[in-house]
Amino acid sequence: MRFKNEKNCLKQDIQNVFEKIPYSQAVLIDLMTERNHLENNETSKMFLNKNWWDVSGDVLDLGTPCPFLLGDISFRYFLPAFLLHALQNEHVSPVMDSVLDRLYLPKDEECLEEFKQRYSMYTIEEKRILLKLLKYIRHRCLHKDTELNRRIIERIDFSIENFWSDFE
């Protein structure tokens, strides 16, 4: 019961914090920007002129749109849809795996600056929610002792220790 309550509180926190982000001109421009790959453009069209709360789980389950294929501004805006959908599962789903990849702190110095720049546009509240999510996944969704889960735990721990814990 405590697990379910913790998950429900996290979902409510996500909704409360991210509902403040408007579908702005910047989101629209980011979605309309032509990218190098056809998949990026197709993904952007799936989100065009939609509020994050209107993106259905059926669309997210298709595997496209993938969070990787969104620009940083539109990823931030639609992040709550991905998070809330991913929290429907008791394990790390493909949707959550894609989101986690964007939350992992890179070990490569070149990518580190880009990572820090990407999250500089997030509020402290939003960063705290993402930290809370990482901790939740770390402690609630990775029960089986598998090589994959050990790697996910290692990446989450590294990311929390070296970046996300600054927002506690």
Contiguous low-pLDDT stretches (5 residues minimum) are none
Tally of individual helices = 9
Mind summarizing the main beta sheet? none
Task: State the shape.
Answer: globular
What oligomeric state do the depicted chains represent?
A: single chain
Q: Class by helix and strand content?
A: mainly alpha
User: Portion of residues in helices?
Assistant: 55-70%
Radius of gyration: 16 Å
Task: Give the percentage of residues in beta strands.
Answer: under 5%
Helix and strand succession? Answer: HHHHHHHHH
Distance between the termini: 25 Å
- Supply the number of structural domains: 1
Number of strands: 0
Write down the overall mean pLDDT: 85
Question: What's this, in brief?
Answer:
The chain is mostly helical. Helices cover 65% and strands 0% of the residues. The chain has one domain (2-167).
